[in-house]
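Rotation project, supervised by the postdoc (A.L.). Task for the rotation student: set up a whole-complex structure prediction and record inputs and outputs verbatim in this book. Inputs entered:
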Amino acid sequence: MMLKILRFIILASLLTALIYFLNNSREIKGTHVPPLGKFIDPFNGYLQNAETENLSYEEIIADSSLQKQVTVVYDSNNIPHIFAENDDDLYFTQGYIIAQHRLWQLEFQTHAAAGRLSEIIGNNENIIAFDRLQRRLGMVEGAKASLEEYLKHPEMKQILNRYADGINAYIDQLNYKDLPIEYKLLDYKPEKWTILKTALVLEYMVNSLIGWDNDVANTNALKLLGKEKFNFLFPDNLPGIDPVVPTLRPWAFDSIRHINADNNYPYDFIYDTIPRSNPQNGSNNWAVSGKKTKSGYALLANDPHLGLNLPSLWFLMQLHSPNVSVTGYTFAGAPGIIIGYNNKISWGFTNSPRDQRDWYKIQLKDDSRKEYFYDSTWHPVAWKTEVIRIKNSSPFIDSVGYTHHGPMVYDHQFPGNGSNESLALKWIGHLPSRVLFSFYYLNRASNYQDYEKALKYWDAPSQNIVFASTNGDIALRVEGTFPLKWPQQGKFILDGTNPNHDWAGFIPHEHNAFMLNPERGFVSSANQHAVDTNYPYYTYSSTNEYYRNRRINRLLPEMSNITPKDFMKMHTDVYSIKAEEVLPLLLDSLGTLSLTGKHQEILNELKRWDYQYHPNIKAPAYFELWWKQFQGLLWDELKKQNLPLPKPNEFTTTYILRNHPGNEFIDRLETPEKETLTDLVTQSFTSIPGLVAGWEDRNKKAINWGNYNNVRLIHLARVIEPFNTQTLASGGSGDVINALKGSHGPSLRMIVEMSQPPKAWGVLPGGQSGNPGSPRYDNWVEKWVKGEYFELYLWDAKPADELSSYQQLFNPLPLP
Amino acid sequence: MKLSTKTILIAIIAFIIQQYFTFWSVALVAFLINILIRTGGFTSFLSGFLGVGLLWFLYSMYIDQNTLGIITDRIATLFQLPRVSLLLITGLLGGLVGGLAGLTGFSFYKIFERKKLTGYYH
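Outputs recorded:
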């Protein structure tokens, strides 16, 4: 009897242990393993995330907060069109639909913005550093400031709340079985959506669009080189620049402040810098007037370049209520349509590089770090404790000191151990933003005046906002919150003790540069200088674009009788003005050598090349390797161990080589000889075969541009390899219109013809679904690579043949 | 005979109960069925193993085929396994839970089972 009881107890314990083991996740050799039983159970686990070609969402949804029935009709491209009878129901349903397609992405972005990734990913050095940085940038503080502003406006508060209600209605009805697969893999659950999370999504966008200043590296270079050499290598302006808004006639206003403060910058070497957002976050947009098109209607094109991730950043949908009808691209977490068109107007964005972020060196009183010096007296530092919770581990505690400039992102604890400097960040991300109002009014705009009014709320990262309307107007406005600056202010680290170094207000909105129906019949932008030096305010950026914009401005004047097809072709143009300007210079300076077989072959390829970055040829890869190697030799003075230094951009490099071919930087410091330009060009050319062989060895495939450029879409979590795509055989490069490079490039493409009603075409890298188990996760990738489009639809009313297309009904409770 | 009856019963009830409950609900099914229908220890284990194991294997194969391997492909790559092994492991894991639960059921009813009276004095 006792033995039998014992046997039962042993077996029951074994069973319990087995179930416990299968019901929990664990770390095995640093690798996270999901709860195997839960995950593999075909009734509830990952297999339930598999979808077929047919949409299979909940078809009837009931919610007591709805006032009227809402219908969501999916068109042939699985794009949802929401038909609601009032805006309350409209934004509720938008929230629900975005959650239904993109829940994991929606929440992951906000965890990232708030510095909470360690909570879901676990103890990982890089992730903790990332979280610390978000905390130290004051992302949540910035989001709260904007949210406070929105809450002052009852209509915006209502939109945010209804959008959140919609997301939460979706979350509330989920079982484990229905969770996006990433939750199952990482073993966590979605939180309730809050309106602060929407503000965080916007804050994240602000950070990725302006988080790329060069101030610290510039300060290092200034100390290393002195002012004269610095200005030689890093000029603000050069001949041959083609700004977005050229000065055609005198500006109709005077600048309101132009004092020249003392330029006593802190002279420092700072050895460790925080990571910056990708400086390639660029874009193209343009619009032509009806004079230049075949149909006689204005035509608009936009392709914003951002990190290429899966799930795709953008989601396509139409919003329709008695107050608004608009189709276009939205991103997960923000109500409304961000880039799109309605029955009267269309609009799109490119980033306009402008310095909206500055660093102040803080002088602390003593090691207690309780007071800092400013304007001849001591002020208190407000210390905030940041608790970073880590999955399966004890939390990481950080503390961030706030000055009136902003948080001391750099201090004795961060980053690394390199420096003891305390640098406070001042950026527009800490200011309250009303940018959602811009989208709200753009969605409802019907002419140029409405567009202009909508952009009065654009207190956000600087953007070139292109516009076209059915009454024939085309326009482009450069909008953003632009701090007033004295010349050179913000190029280097500023003196945090000196009030003259503070931002002294902002450029008034009516002084922002714009173009409306210019004589030349088109407007365009591609992240080049926004204005020229005649513009009455000082403008600065370290990341201006020099080539794509000139290609666009070379093509558009030559074109007439333009059709949407022409613009589709233009979006995938891979002709490089950089190669056109650089390669002859290199070839002309190449010394006469006795060339071996491989060298001769490379030279022949390059001489035959037409500067097109096609995927299946070798010449672009040879050229890029050569040019990169050459620049390395040329700017060897700017390679110092551990010291971050800027490099002259390629346009400036070419300018210097042409105009100062004997300058001192040509000589290589590490050799006793004095090199000439020819020596550098020849030495770098000679190294190409070795570099090619090395690359081919590492990558186990033959080099060609497609392989070398390595265009891939990477899943947001970055650690789940099978959720990424393979290398896509695609042409392009950062300097050509089809700006595809690595995992960066056109995050959407859109073309709108402003006929009545307008016609539009679009595509995006990925698909509508965020689910790696859905065919709609990546079903548009091939189209996108090939430069193909599908038609977008703006329906005036629910289509009559309701039965033939897939739809979801949202019913108020109790049922009518 | 009892084996196939139990196996089929376990599979059917597990299929139904899994529509509502998490994976370890199958353990309860195999446990209870083996208390209600009594056999030897080995048959008890086998009924749970086959009932749940086959159910999981066949159902995962059905989803895999029905969705053209869209998710099984990715997960198999993630676990560095061939797709078919992933499905076999699915069956094996389910089988282990079911089998062990069946055996536990067997050991449970054995506690209360009286030995048949065979002696003169009892």
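Student's summary: Residues 18 and 45 of chain B are 20 Å apart (CA to CA).
Supervisor addendum: Chain B touches chain A at residues 18-19, 22-24, 27, 56, 59-60, 63-64, 66-68, 70-75, 77-78, 89-90, 93-94, 96-97, 100-101, 103-104, 107-108, 110-111 (CB under 8 Å).
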